[in-house]
Amino acid sequence: MNQDIARVIISEETLLHRVQEMGHEIAHAYADNPDGMTIVAVLSGAIIFLADLIRFLPMKLRVDLVTVSSYPGKTTRSVGPKLTNYSAVNVRDRDVLIVDDILDTGSTLSLVQAELTRSGPRSLRTAVLLRKPGKAPSGIEANFVGFDIEDEFVVGYGLDYDGMYRNLPYVGLLRSHLYE
Ligand code: IMP
Ligand code: MG
């Protein structure tokens, strides 16, 4: 598998260190909140980030999961996201934090933000591990961002290409001959 990676972009140590820092930032932002918070994580890319992040959050919290698929099969271009298992999510009057792997064009987050807003949360914020600056239109923003990266297709630490490479412990650049 590692021979498919052209370059490590963010090492395992750097990821964990920054995720811990983000945990402190988020814990601070919700510190005055006796009811804790509700995390809505976007599957499948957020799984590793979610698992690491919540262990740095000491307050009461719930985790709900939604599925958004935007890259069917062997493509690195989004074809427009679809939200598929939203019905069980209950965020009314809750302080909600959306957790996703990456803010790229912003269409995933704008979809999730719009759906959640309709359900009447008390507050709604967003945390992403990665962001490709300048790609998302202004108005689609994340309150907590782990790293800004170049506009390149990356995999690992939850991010996939055609369903694979999520288990890499680092974020790396896929060799370009491996994708279309
Ligand atoms: P957006 O809707 O264009 O912002 O894309 C967000 C979703 O696309 C993320 O949740 C990822 O699942 C996926 N994505 C965007 N860029 C990458 C990448 O570089 N590698 C892997 N997945 C990506
Ligand atoms: Mg995703």
Quick tags:
single chain; 180 residues; Rossmann fold; 3-stranded antiparallel sheet; 9 strands; globular; binds inosinic acid
Regarding quaternary structure, how should these chains be classified? single chain
Count of the separate structural domains: 1
How large a portion of the residues is in β-strands, by DSSP E?
A: 25-35%
At the fold tier of CATH, the topology name is Rossmann fold
Give the bound compounds: inosinic acid, magnesium ion
Topology order in helix (H) and strand (E) letters: EHEHEEEHEEEE
Strand order of the largest sheet: 4-3-2-5-6-7
Kindly provide the name of the CATH class: Alpha Beta
Mean pLDDT: 91
Distance between the termini: 18 Å
The major pleated sheet works out as: 6 strands, mixed
Computed over alpha carbons, the radius of gyration is: 16 Å
> Count the strands?
9
What is the 3D shape?
globular
By CATH, the architecture is named 3-Layer(aba) Sandwich
